[in-house]
Amino acid sequence: MSRTEKAFELACEIYREHGVDPVEVMEKVKNIPVSLHAWQGDDVVGFENFETALTGGCQVTGNYPGRARTADELRADLDLVLKLVPGRSRVCLQGHQVDKMIPGVDRDGFTVGHFSNWLAWAQEKKIGMDIAPCFYSHPRLDHGLSLSHPDAGIRKFWIDHGLNIRRVAAEFGRVLGTPSVCNFWMPDGFKDIPADRYAPRMRMKESLDTIFAEKIDEKYELDAVESKLFGIGVESCTVGSHDFFLMYAARNNKLICLDSGHFHPTESIGDKLSAIVSQQGRILLHVSRGVRWDSDHVILLNDELLSIAREAAVYGYLDRIFFCLDYFDASINRIAAMAVGARNMRKALLIALLEPSALLRKEEDAWDFSARMARQEEIKTLPWGSVWSYFCEQEGVPGDFAMMDDIASYEKNVLSGRN
């Protein structure tokens, strides 16, 4: 018996004394789908045939070598990430990460043909695919406005883009046999205080109503809408605020997407989950890490991530929560960034499901808050690390630092040739 196996057996004894079976937990954790955000690999640049500055707050800092310059390169990078992350993964695209451009066809004319190699790749990997329209980094984002622009022609361009990406998502879902989540986030807003906040929000609502008027079966595609507190250049007014999209999602039966970088630093995303799921029923999470502002750092195993995972896992509604990662860091190896963050998401879910929640609830129901507090502190020292190491071994992926050997080899043999 290996050292990892011995440590796991001892951990099982301890957890079973608390009424938790780590073997059952590992099986649950393995089957929770987590969508890997492909845009970490290309710095949110996309693969269209025109050069334009990133807009709408999607600035990526750093110039680490090896950025994926084509969809083929990005898929190769994702091949390695999928080998380094345990459990059931999906992949999420942004709407400008096309396989190829067709002459004379802009974003308002995209079809599944623009993503045909992505679809074939996902079929080969036997994974699901999600996608989001890309309402930024394009000349038609005029004065920072897309779906809320006063010009009907500009709005129509973006409406057609959103509608066509929904159709692409539906084809992903039909072919791959799992619903594709299509998430809508727009950077629309104003740098300084606007004279009129109402009209842009009404235009955005009407644009979204037009996009969603085409009914698509939810067994193929699920719509989500994502809010934001502010972005670069829209510090004074974000059209698609949390209040706007929470109401829109509730009234139109859409998923509300909560991004853990899109709120004030003192707000907890974990605290919001039960409030929304108890009434709206389901939710999309974009898991990120803001440092002082929405800076999309690689997620770490910190208190915020543990809180999100705990609140998502312990109430029995994991099947109503959709997990997608959303961060981008070009100051470090991009594959390491994606793999470390994805593993931390899975690790946090494992820790959450190992919680002896039945004992905590028993103490809480008896109004014994002292015992509850003492147990919550005891939980922090339980040997989840031994369960995690064994889980990785069973899934055939390297340990947390051991994976750096594979990443270093890939950097030397592949990434270094891209500059």
Task: Characterize the main sheet.
Answer: 8 strands, parallel
Quaternary structure: single chain
Can you tell me the residue ranges where pLDDT is under 50 for at least 5 consecutive residues?
Answer: none
CATH superfamily membership: Divalent-metal-dependent TIM barrel enzymes
- Pairing-aware structural class of the strands and helices? alpha/beta
Number of strands: 10
How much of the sequence lies in strands comes to 5-15%
Quickly give the CATH architecture: Alpha-Beta Barrel
Question: Which percent bin holds the helix content?
Answer: 40-55%
* Number of helical stretches of at least 4 residues: 14
Overall mean pLDDT stands at 94
* Count of discrete domains: 1
| SSE topology string | HHEHEHEHEEHEEHEHEHEHHHHH
Explain this structure to me?
There is one protein chain. The chain is of the alpha/beta class and 419 residues long. It has a single domain, classed as Alpha-Beta Barrel (TIM Barrel), CATH 3.20.20.150. Helices cover 44% and strands 11% of the residues. The chain is built from 14 helices and ten strands. It has helices spanning 3-17, 22-30, 71-84, 116-125, 152-176, 198-212, 242-252, 269-280, 303-313, 334-353, 357-365, 369-379, 384-395, 403-413, and strands spanning 34-37, 89-94, 129-132, 180-184, 189-190, 221-226, 237-238, 255-259, 283-287, 321-325. Strands 3-2-1-10-9-8-6-4 form an eight-stranded parallel beta sheet. Helix 4 links the parallel strand 2 and strand 3 (129-132). Helix 1 crosses helix 13 (384-395) and helix 3 (71-84) packs parallel to helix 10 (334-353). It is globular, with a radius of gyration of 22 Å. It starts with a helix and ends in a 6-residue tail after the last helix.
